[in-house]
Amino acid sequence: MRPVRSVAVSKQDFLRVAEEHPALLMAVTREFSRRLAGLTSRMLAAMSEDVPVRLGQLLIDFASPGAEDLEEFVPLSYPLTHEAMAQIIGASRPHTSTVLRDLEELGLVRRRSDRGLLVRPSRLAQMVRGTGPTVTRHAG
């Protein structure tokens, strides 16, 4: 979630350029397919994993860049509300808040901080992989 710059190209102009430069059309198609495959993969994973695992992975994804192996608490690179987290992982806001409380009890996150939500990326990664602490009360 960062600023994006874009340029709008009309369908007519795009098709004209694609006719003149078929390699460009193939490159655009490859990139679109790659991104669609990645989105599909993330969506399938989100639907097959329990809420604590989906939330843990989201928090790892939003941890400060380069923090994946850190044991200490680090802030998120972008502040997320409980509502935003719930929408991203496909859970209700109350359920997401409950799972965050459980993660805090396990020492994986710290919710009340002057720097916002803090996370322990390496410990969250262990939970996501199933090799660390687990949230058992609210798995659905």
**Estimated structural class:** mainly alpha
Number of domains: 2
Reading off the top of the CATH hierarchy, the class of the largest domain is best stated as Mainly Alpha
Strand order of the largest sheet: 1-3-2
CATH superfamily of the largest domain: Winged helix-like DNA-binding domain superfamily/Winged helix DNA-binding domain
- The number of helical runs is 6
- Beta-strand segment tally: 3
Radius of gyration: 19 Å
H/E order of the elements? HHHEHHEEH
The global form is elongated
What is the second-level CATH architecture of the largest domain? Orthogonal Bundle
Beginning-to-end CA distance, first to last residue:
27 Å
CATH fold category name of the largest domain: Arc Repressor Mutant, subunit A
Beta-strand percentage? under 5%
Instruction: Point out poorly predicted stretches.
Output: none
Major β-sheet, in short?
3 strands, antiparallel
Question: What does the model show?
Answer:
This protein is mainly α. The chain folds into 2 domains: 11-43, no CATH class; 50-129, Winged helix-like DNA-binding domain superfamily/Winged helix DNA-binding domain (Arc Repressor Mutant, subunit A). It is 56% helix and 4% strand. It has 6 helices and 3 strands, in the order αααβααββα. It has helices at 11-20, 22-48, 51-62, 82-89, 93-105, 121-129; strands spanning 74-75, 109-110, 118-119. Strands 1-3-2 form a 3-stranded antiparallel β-sheet. A hairpin with a 7-residue loop joins strand 2 and strand 3.
